[in-house]
């Protein structure tokens, strides 16, 4: 009388042992795999990002001895390397500090008020020994997206770039909330269609 019960128990045990564990991890459907990319630091003030889709080079300029220490200038250039265009708005650029704080781009009115005192810093941008243009197959010499412009000039609030054999480039100005940028590792964050983080150091 117990034989049928024993047989049923043996069958159930065999099925349970053959089934995969309930805790087994499986790839979630539709999850995108990050494209290969690389961050390089070819110079003390230079950081470069490359992927199959995009190349970005940023050079930061901070000279508190000769300029107002609250101002940080970053020269950034982006080159689209695939058929997938990008769009990045002004609000998509920010800096993340060593303590995790976030500093957005300076406002245009603040830049215009400080434009005269920022001229020496901007001149230093154009007299560096290693221009940013040298990192691209086609020279990226022109600052052709303009978030910060003097009074009366046309400004932009978005950057649109596509694969055309040339890159887009512009100046980014940031103001230190405490009046000066302390030493440490900061990160230039570019959102929008890019989602890029470029680390750089301030001594």
General description of the model:
This protein has 203 residues and is an alpha+beta fold. It is built from three helices and eleven strands; from the N terminus they run αβββββββααββββ. The protein has helices at 3-18, 108-113, 115-125; strands at 37-43, 46-51, 54-61, 71-80, 86-89, 93-96, 102-104, 158-161, 168-175, 184-190, 196-202. A five-stranded antiparallel sheet has the order 1-2-3-4-9. Strands 7-6-10-11 form a four-stranded antiparallel sheet, with no helix packed on it. It has a two-stranded antiparallel ribbon with strand order 5-8. The longest helix is centred in the N-terminal third of the chain and has 16 residues, at 3-18. It is globular and about 40 Å long. The chain starts with a helix and ends with a strand.
Read across the widest sheet, the strand sequence of neighbours is 1-2-3-4-9
Distance between the termini: 85 Å
Unreliable residue runs: 1-35
Percent of residues in helices comes to 10-25%
C-alpha geometry: globular
Largest beta-sheet characterization: 5 strands, antiparallel
Quote the beta fraction: 25-35%
Number of helices: 3
Q: What is the averaged pLDDT score? A: 78
**Overall radius of gyration:** 26 Å
Series of secondary-structure elements, N-terminal to C-terminal: HEEEEEEEHHEEEE
Class by SSE composition:
alpha+beta
Number of strands: 11
């Amino acid at each position: 009388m117990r034989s049928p019960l024993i047989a049923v128990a043996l069958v159930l045990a065999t099925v349970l042992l053959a089934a995969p564990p309930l805790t087994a991890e499986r790839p979630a459907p539709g999850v995108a795999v990050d494209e290969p990319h690389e961050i390089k630091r070819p110079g003390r003030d230079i950081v470069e990002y490359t992927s199959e889709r995009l190349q970005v080079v940023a050079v930061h300029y901070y000279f508190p001895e000769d300029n107002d220490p609250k101002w940080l200038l970053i020269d950034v250039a982006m080159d689209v390397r695939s058929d997938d265009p990008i769009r990045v708005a002004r609000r998509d650029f920010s800096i993340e500090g060593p303590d995790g704080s976030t500093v957005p781009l300076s406002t245009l009115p603040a830049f215009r008020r400080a434009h005269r005192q920022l001229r020496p810093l901007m001149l230093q941008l154009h007299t560096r020994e290693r221009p940013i243009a040298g990192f691209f197959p086609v020279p990226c010499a022109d600052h052709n997206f303009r978030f910060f412009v003097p009074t009366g000039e046309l400004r932009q609030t978005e950057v649109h770039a596509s694969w055309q054999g040339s890159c887009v480039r512009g100046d980014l100005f940031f103001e230190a909330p405490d009046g000066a940028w302390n030493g440490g590792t900061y990160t230039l964050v570019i959102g929008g269609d890019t989602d890029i983080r470029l680390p750089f150091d301030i001594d």
